What we know:
The chain contains 10 helices and 9 strands. The chain is of the alpha/beta class. It has one domain: NAD(P)-binding Rossmann-like Domain (Rossmann fold, 3-Layer(aba) Sandwich), CATH 3.40.50.
Amino acid sequence: MQRIAFIGAGIMGKSMVRNLKKAGFTVQIYARHPEKVAELVQEGIELFSTIGDCVKEADAVITIVGFPSDVEEVYFGSGNILDSAKKGACLIDMTTTSPELDRRIYEEGKKRGLHVLDAPVTGGDTGAKNGTLSILVGGDREDFESCQKIFEAMGKNIKYFGPSGSGQHAKAVNQIMVAANLAGVCEAYT
């Protein structure tokens, strides 16, 4: 897998795109607001004006967008990823959403001959910049293994958790643990 379409080059996404490029991948992007990715374009990243054009020749498509509604839009809306990606492509949703949404993407992708992984991340913008994200992956193991080099370009702690939706479950558990620890710290100081 050499050509990656990336949807969601925001605060974290920009650094992830740069790390993928640094690792030798050809990366192309789609952005709703092209002015926000001007620096990536100046660095040689190709910008497409539609999702369909961006993903149609890509070996892998990575999404890390703001909200679950944005995920639904890019996968199921007009000119979407599922309808535009070439057969055999790997779709990797790295947005924090829900296991149900990512299982829905998985099921629709499988019907179209696509490989689908849910792979939410932890580590924030610093982890994205440094290429040290923790990546929590769900989906078919063979798809996880075939995307290992992609994950290694963006993260250091990469774990496979099981079938579709498992990455999102692991992320939820992580967030609950963070919240519980934060509540304990706050209680200790009051």
